[in-house]
Specification:
Layout: E1 2-6, H1 11-22, E2 29-33, E3 42-45, E4 48-53, H2 55-60, E5 65-68, H3 72-84, E6 88-91, H4 107-110, E7 120-122, H5 126-142, E8 144-153, H6 160-171, H7 201-213, E9 220-227, E10 234-242, H8 248-256, E11 261-263, H9 275-278, E12 284-291, E13 298-305, H10 309-325
Parallel strand pairs: 1-2, 1-5, 2-4, 5-6, 6-7, 8-9, 11-12
Antiparallel strand pairs: 3-4, 8-10, 10-13, 12-13
Helix pairs in contact: 1-10, 5-7, 5-10
The structure holds NADP nicotinamide-adenine-dinucleotide phosphate (NAP).
Length: 329
């Protein structure tokens, strides 16, 4: 088993390395790949220094699996080149997510769709993954009609440059800006680029990817995505209207019984999910579970998860684990 990490020097890539090591992913060789800027740089994996190589050199080595986190344009150009030599690509960018021929996978929900023929597999957007992890069991039981979500997203969701912008601003250092405005002491209602409708691409990912993962285009979703000055971990206020009524105890039981979801919900002792505690963990945390009293069959929740782990690296590695366990690579 030869595995390549494309984007190994980035935020997601470095968490992938950590997750592969923690989970002791079975492999004989690891290729670390980044842009021409990083070729020759050394990165440690299991106490061994590995030299970063370029994309063509990695293709030439025909890895069995390539975990991509190097941006959309790199994926568009290079994922097919890896697929052509027989590599199965699992891609973190938005390049392939809405392609009709590509599967968009959250292993706990729809990994069973995967076959040997899937050579490019898409990993959903971080804010979508954590939301559908909590929504999937509830949709199955009560059938969702409409979801209204507002996100509070950390700077690590934008990459290395944005984390540096926040750190510089906190330290009072003038540096490169990843956002059009300061992010420290601020909230920017603008994640990714604006579309013609006035929504951002990030907001529309929550709409389109949710429908694709849950395989139901009748679910109405509307979103507002906001960047806030937290270092790691996205939070979401989610309002869901179901076709059928629910019982709050049963909702808590359903969520607690879902693999990868942890309920943190006891307002008597101020227990609710927060990014500072979700940071570094693989689970999706759900709290503030309460009935929306303004209309029937409606629920409010607060969902928090580490965007670099379950939102990206962990979900990708879980897909790779599923492929290996089911002899699909
Ligand atoms: N951050 C998140 O929470 C998150 C969540 C889900 C998905 N994603 C997606 O994952 C991808 C990476 O995000 P990130 O946050 O890790 O960004 P990042 O910290 O900026 O890292 C980008 C990585 O891509 C590499 N890269 C850039 N251009 C390249 C090129 N032309 N050829 C080869 N490698 C290239 C960089 O290599 P150099 O160091 O050599 O420049 C670096 O390793 C993006 O597509 C992003 O949308 C991010």
């Amino acid at each position: 088993m030869k595995v390549a990490i494309v984007g190994a020097t980035g935020l997601v890539g470095s968490v992938m390395l950590k997750v592969l090591e923690e989970r002791n992913f079975p492999m004989d060789e690891l290729l670390l790949v980044a842009s021409a800027r990083s070729i020759g740089k050394e990165i440690n994996y299991k106490n061994k220094a590995i030299k970063v190589i370029g994309l063509q050199e990695a293709v030439n080595q025909k890895p069995n699996i390539a975990l991509f986190s190097a941006g959309g344009s790199t994926s568009l150009e290079w994922a097919p080149k890896f697929a052509e030599v027989g590599t199965t690509v699992i891609d973190n960018s938005s390049a392939w997510r809405m392609d009709l021929d590509k599967k968009l996978v959250v292993p706990e929900i729809n990994a069973n769709q995967l076959t040997k023929n899937d050579k490019i597999i898409a990993n959903p957007n971080c804010s979508t993954i954590q939301m559908v992890m909590a929504l999937a069991p509830l949709h199955k039981k009560y059938k969702m009609k409409r979801v209204v979500v507002s996100t509070y997203q950390s700077v690590s969701g934008t990459g290395v440059k944005a984390v540096e912008q926040l750190e510089n601003e906190i330290a009072g250092i003038k540096g490169e800006m990843a956002y059009p405005y300061p992010i420290a002491k601020n909230a920017i209602p603008h994640c990714d680029v604006f579309e013609e409708t006035g929504y951002t691409k990030e907001e529309m990912k929550l709409v389109r990817e949710t429908q694709k993962i849950l395989d139901d285009n009748t679910i109405a979703v509307t979103a507002t995505a906001v960047r806030i000055p937290t270092a790691g971990g996205h939070s979401e206020s989610v309002n869901v209207e179901f076709e059928n009524d629910f019982n709050l105890t049963e909702v808590r039981e359903l969520l607690s019984a879902t693999d990868g979801v942890v309920v943190q919900d006891n307002t008597d002792v101020n227990t609710y999910p927060m990014p500072m505690y979700a940071n570094g963990k693989d689970d999706v945390f759900v709290g503030r579970i309460r009935r929306d009293m303004s209309q029937p069959n409606s629920l409010n929740m607060w969902i928090v998860s580490d965007n670099l782990r379950k939102g990206a690296a962990t979900n990708t590695v879980q897909i790779a684990e599923y492929l290996v366990a089911n002899s699909l690579v």
